[in-house]
Design a protein that fits this description.
This protein is mainly beta. It contains one helix and 25 strands. The termini are close together.
Length: 492
């Protein structure tokens, strides 16, 4: 009897194995790196990149002539494999201090800390570090960590968001007030702010936008800044040589007398309002409530996506309903926008990315060095999407001076373009003549998950097995194959 029971058990196990082997269910596989922390955000300056990790640490690579990497020297990192991966140190922010956001300007870097304060390092010729002097920080030993003072924002104030332009920085405070320091006009005044201790702290006044609407977003560019208000309105200030402020003139706006109720808003069109802003060196783009986008300002490389090199925003006749939307393709809408230097990119409703503008150093990764968006028939369906390879999905996109970087939902990073100082994390790699899908990932010793690969297992013969117990001692088994047959077996 025991032998018969064992035989029955073995038979049932065989059936289960057969079912698993002939399963039609697709399976996905994913692999993870051995690193324990993942990259959650990236920032890009003129020629350097920084990554924020899930444990609040920061690593930076690329050009370091002003100490912007924060390692106490001026040595670039990225070209040599020996300077990346585990050999790339974390930036010393101080005892018990971690970061929640990292931003980068032209040659400087700032971090929003877990203490709701800000620390900055790198180039400081225009007081962009807000340190009360014009001395660079981070280019020599003994300047980082506990030696690096926080930016004095004001008594009992905490920072909820931080952005950096080329030579200035701005914060949104817990009171929803906006304060900026660094280069004149871009900071809302006619003088540099931050090179004297007496200009910071409570003496650093919040900017007046002449409205009761709260601030949803601040963006900073070359010598300009803009805010997105809670009603979807947009207001900009700073240098306006190319019509970057979108007010129908080329008159600079930045003195105290220009702010407040005197600060004009950007007319985006009848019934239209903005949901997100992106700012390059001298151009601004707005994602609108109908999932279209409009851009204005400098357009020397086609960064406005208008099929020409004509500036927009320097004439009243170019504003509002007369300001065209960017053509990103037939029946395509925009989910998020990015801008930097002389380039603009859009994340589409399909999850695909399209970029246009400056391309002299192969920044657009399309196999050419020809600008896109500056001539007819280069936008819309004629503008190719970026093929990153596999099923990679963009989480964040940043634009350096002449380089691009993409952070994917897998945690991996790809950078390409000029790569003069190792911005791509390797030497003579990711050349524009090669396909973007073949570009190597930056090795920052981070936890990454490869994009899932769908695999299917098929069997030419489909097998179904049904087991019915008649009595505790009797079992009836019928097996159906692709060719119908049934064999009743009674086990005594």
């Amino acid at each position: 009897m025991k032998n018969k029971v064992y035989a029955l058990i073995c038979s049932l196990l065989s059936v289960c194995i057969a079912i698993g082997a002939t399963s039609q269910t697709p399976r996905t596989t994913a692999t993870e790196s051995k690193a324990s922390v993942a990259v959650t955000q990236i920032a890009a300056g003129e020629g350097h990149v920084c990554a924020l990790f899930s444990n609040g640490t920061i690593k930076c690579w690329g050009y370091n002539g002003e100490g912007q990497l924060g390692y106490g020297d001026t040595t670039a990192r990225g070209k040599s494999a020996g300077t990346m991966g585990r050999n790339l140190a974390t930036v010393d922010l101080g005892t018990g201090i971690t970061a929640t956001k990292v931003v980068a300007g032209e040659y400087f870097t700032c971090a929003l800390l877990n203490t709701k304060q800000v620390k900055c390092w790198g180039r400081n010729h225009r007081a962009q570090l807000g340190s009360g002097s014009n001395n660079n920080i981070g280019n020599a030993p003994g300047q980082m960590g506990d030696h690096l003072a926080v930016v004095s924002i004001g008594s009992d104030r905490s920072v909820v968001d931080l952005v950096a332009g080329y030579d200035h920085a701005c914060v949104i405070l817990d009171t929803n007030a906006v304060k900026c320091w660094g280069y004149e006009f871009a900071n809302g005044t006619t003088i540099n702010i931050g090179d004297s201790v007496s200009q910071m702290g409570d003496a650093l006044l919040p900017l007046d936008f002449g409205t009761s609407f709260t601030v949803k977003q601040v963006v900073a560019g070359g010598n300009q800044s803009c805010v997105l208000l809670s009603n979807g309105g947009v207001k900009c200030w700073g240098s306006n040589y190319h019509g970057t402020l979108g007010i129908g003139s080329t008159t600079d706006v930045g003195g105290v007398e220009d702010m407040g109720s005197q600060l004009a808003g950007v007319f985006l069109g009848t019934g239209r309002y903005a949901t997100q802003l992106a700012m390059g060196n001298n151009h601004v783009c707005a994602l609108l409530d109908d999932s279209t986008m409009k851009c204005w300002g400098y357009n020397n490389s086609g960064q406005l996506g208008m099929g020409s090199t004509a500036n927009l925003g320097d004439s009243v006749a170019e504003l509002g309903d007369n300001m065209p939307t960017v053509n990103v393709g037939t029946n395509r809408t925009v989910k998020k926008i990015y801008a930097g230097f002389s380039n603009t990119c859009a994340l589409l409703d399909t999850g695909a990315m399209k970029c246009w503008g400056f391309n002299e150093r192969g920044a657009l990764a399309d196999g050419t060095t020809t600008h896109k968006g500056d001539a007819e028939n280069e936008m819309g369906d004629n503008l190719a999407t970026l093929n990153f390879g596999g099923s990679l999905v963009v989480k964040q996109f940043v634009i350096l001076g002449y380089d691009f970087c993409a952070l994917f939902t897998t945690g991996g990073i790809k950078c390409w373009g000029r790569n003069d100082s190792g911005e791509a994390g390797c030497e003579e790699c990711n050349m524009y003549t090669n396909a973007l899908s073949t570009y190597t990932f930056v090795n920052v010793d981070a936890k990454t998950v490869t994009a899932p690969t769908l695999t299917k297992t098929k069997s030419p013969t489909r097998t179904r097995t049904r087991t019915r117990t008649l009595t505790p001692s009797k079992t009836f088994t019928r097996t159906l194959t692709a060719t119908p047959s049934s064999t009743p077996t009674v086990i005594p």
